Amino acid sequence: MPDPYINAVAQLDSVKKYIDAPGNLFDQLKTPEHIIRKSISVQMDNGSKKTFVAFRLQHNSARGPYKGGIRFHPQVNEAEMKALSMLMTWKCAVVDIPFGGGKGGIVVDPKSLSEKELERLSRSYMKTFAPYFGAWKDIPAPDVNTNAQIMAWMLDEYIKIQNSKFKIQDDESPYAVLTGKPVELGGSQGREEATGFGGAIVLEQIAKKLKLKRQYTTVAIQGFGNVGYWFAYFADQAGFKVVAASDSKGAIFVPKGMNPELTLAGKKEQGTIAGNYCVGSVCDVKLGKTLAEEDLLQLKVDILVPAALEGSIHKGNAGKVQARTVIEMANAPVTPEADVVLQKKGVLIVPDILSNAGGVTTSYFEWSQNLSGASWKKEVVLQKLREVMETSFDAVWSVSKENNIDLRSAAYVLAVRRVLDAMRLRGTQ
Ligand code: NAD
């Protein structure tokens, strides 16, 4: 496995020539501001104590408090955390929200824990890292294998600490310290669909730029989880033709364009997307066919949307991609080697730090609502998100045209310039 931090630094270095900054300032961006590594001890159900390695990485705070998820995964490691916290800095800067980048994690296989052990682990993480978190300091969120319930336990733990004699900050709303909370605890309306919705806005913008007619524009989506489903739903609502989708168990091809809601209902009933072919209000075996999962990536469609896993388009299969445009909805679904192959073939790639930034943007909306005591309706959240995604897409597109560079490089140039501007103005050199 290539070191993700080395990849992240290489990506940063690749845009240096488009950025006017003294070398020392630019180089500061390669190193996180803080690496916090702790051992946390948790009581297991059988009475024994187990120790876990846990991290919080704070990459850059020039534009605002650190922002980024906490993941629970056996492969969590420092290099990955360094890379992901850096990516969060760029993602927040691309969509121009006032946050820097952070990331956290615990080296653990959460499937090996009972519900009670998972709760104790989550609480213990917050107990240990609470001094580093705060609404104006560092705002965590869910990530791989963490969810709204885990945020709720962490919030509860934070409030307990805040109320105890070891006060963290008197004047701070604890609800604004974490995002991705349940709606009942200050979570935002629209957060569930936000990432997929943001991606569908990117699709609309691409169609405009490439002058594609929506009803003839075919879309294949790898992954039909939270992001993939909502992407399909909003793309379909906007008049695009979603002809293929997959999950970990199989893929379907529905040439007339699928009904995502009925497809999801069928998937829930049968435990897999395979065999569910629904067009309009009818589901029928004659309306489609099942594909091998890998074949979805090779379909002759206009738009390919990897929304499942990191590295799913790699040098082994990139040559077979026939789509003209790839919208990256998963994090890093196209490896750097595959990126080169696709670019040589003239494939337009919309990078993850732009196309899946709807999630963190809605986290910013959640934070803003918590700080002001407001609660916005879903339509308001999605309208605000639409504006952010359209503005950010246009900004990246302009940088790409001005410098004659691909969209990934353009997104990096835009983000890195914004971060460096903030650093310069703050005089942190
Ligand atoms: P999820 O767990 O809800 O869904 C993942 C989907 O991918 C599932 O349908 C699963 O069956 C499918 N899948 C797994 N392996 C597959 C394979 N080999 N082939 C095809 N499908 C496969 O996760 P999610 O929240 O939808 O996130 C998807 C990706 O988007 C992840 O990379 C995540 O990091 C990224 N992302 C998510 C958000 C968010 O707000 N949820 C925000 C930014 C980025």
From TrEMBL:
The keyword NAD is annotated on this UniProt entry: yes
Residues annotated to bind NAD(+): T195, N226
Classification via SMART domains: ELFV_dehydrog (SM00839)
Recorded superkingdom: Bacteria
Biological process annotations from GO: L-glutamate catabolic process
GO molecular function: glutamate dehydrogenase (NAD+) activity; nucleotide binding
Alphabetical keyword list: NAD, Nucleotide-binding, Oxidoreductase
Ranges where the Glutamate/phenylalanine/leucine/valine/L-tryptophan dehydrogenase C-terminal domain occurs: 188-427
Residues forming the catalytic site: K103
Record site: Important for catalysis: D143
InterPro entries: Aminoacid_DH-like_N_sf (IPR046346), Glu/Leu/Phe/Val/Trp_DH (IPR006095), Glu/Leu/Phe/Val/Trp_DH_C (IPR006096), Glu/Leu/Phe/Val/Trp_DH_dimer (IPR006097), Glu/Leu/Phe/Val_DH_AS (IPR033524), Glu_DH (IPR014362), NAD(P)-bd_dom_sf (IPR036291), NAD_bind_Glu_DH (IPR033922)
Residues binding substrate: K67, K91, S363
Entries under Gene3D superfamilies matching the protein: Leucine Dehydrogenase, chain A, domain 1, NAD(P)-binding Rossmann-like Domain
Family the UniProt entry places it in: Belongs to the Glu/Leu/Phe/Val dehydrogenases family.
Protein name: Glutamate dehydrogenase
